[in-house]
């Protein structure tokens, strides 16, 4: 079996790796945006709740949370499918980190612009959607890219809950062929290729929405 | 009838009195300048008038309606008052044109095409139409301020408020803004301008109000205020010390 054949065999799992990564990124983005926006609401109980969320989810290891969801929850009668378990663990953890990225970006917005929008008669929601979010997303690109990459690199945990991703294929192949060195080198290359793909996509988006003079602080 | 009547306006922050009973009248088509030392409450006064800050007591009567009442539609009030800031406060992620159309689209619910036409008209009025597609970072200070004025004018406000419009500009750019404000005066735009730029005050207005320690200390014609005023505080502010007498 040539190295190229090994690569092609493993690539069969790449679709699942990509699926897990994108599903967890989507969860993270949704949760991160929600938490960051709610962090603008002046309510002590809500702030305590959001604070606790980021505190806990940034502190728990991905694998522990994944096992808790996938192997633990069935104990109280809640059965979560493998992809759902990944989203509820890796996705939520990514959400906690992204929430902090977004919160920092929101703080970087010039308060004068917000006052100007208020003086114009815009509502809180209009200001959020027309001024704050568009600037926040642009400021967040470097932080988001970091977090997306982290999600990709935690995605191999998916094999522990039975998702046939690259890692799972590699383990199976290594067990039957005993050619670990080449196989693990091959999956390294595959992960790198996926990383490159995400990088190119994010950079293209960044270029598309770039505004002169509006750079992250 | 006056466009704006302010009666005994008081604003206190944490027990500190910023405005100690201000009275002010602004007629339709009039340009009035409020001057005074830093911290005299000039900016607070403007912000109380459009309820960016809630006054502690007193009345602000806008076209016959008391807008300090709790049931006032504050957002509707603000849409009738154009506000121009010291630091321009243009939305940095939007082009000059988009800065001007934002209010028309979101608040007036104007279709994009109509909003663009209206915005281009205002930009042309400010001689900024050639820069419509530029972002704020690509404009000079004077150009930014002209876009900010176009943005305020696009909403067809009853009055324009200027909060130190030239403080962040060099003298050349300041003169640019003075020319613009004078042009607006000829177009019969009502304006209230807070500044400590003597040049600006002298050339845009015939009525100057001197605010000191939260009170209107004097009001009069620009010439009368700038030349030898009886009040030593005012003389000191405008640069006539005792030795000049």
Tell me about this structure.
- The complex is a heterodimer of chains A (217) and B (245).
- Chain A has 217 residues and is mainly alpha-helical.
- Chain A has one domain: MetI-like (MetI-like fold).
- Chain A has helices at 3-11, 14-38, 44-59, 62-72, 82-107, 111-120, 124-139, 141-154, 166-177, 180-208.
- In chain A, helix 1 (3-11) packs across helix 9 (166-177) and helix 3 packs across helix 5 (82-107).
- Chain A is flat.
- In chain A, 37% of the residues are buried.
- With 245 residues, chain B is an alpha/beta fold.
- Chain B has a domain at 1-80 and 190-245: Rossmann fold (3-Layer(aba) Sandwich).
- The longest helix of chain B is centred in the C-terminal third of the chain and has 16 residues, at 171-186.
- The model of chain B is unreliable at 241-245 (pLDDT under 50).
- The A-B interface holds A 110, 112-113, 115-123, 126, 130-131, 134-135, 138, 211-214 and B 50, 52, 75-79, 81, 83, 85, 87-93, 102-103, 106-107, 135-138, 151, 155.
Features:
heterodimer; A: 217 residues; mainly alpha; MetI-like fold; B: 245 residues; alpha/beta; Rossmann fold; six-stranded mixed beta sheet; four-stranded antiparallel beta sheet; 35% helix; 24% strand
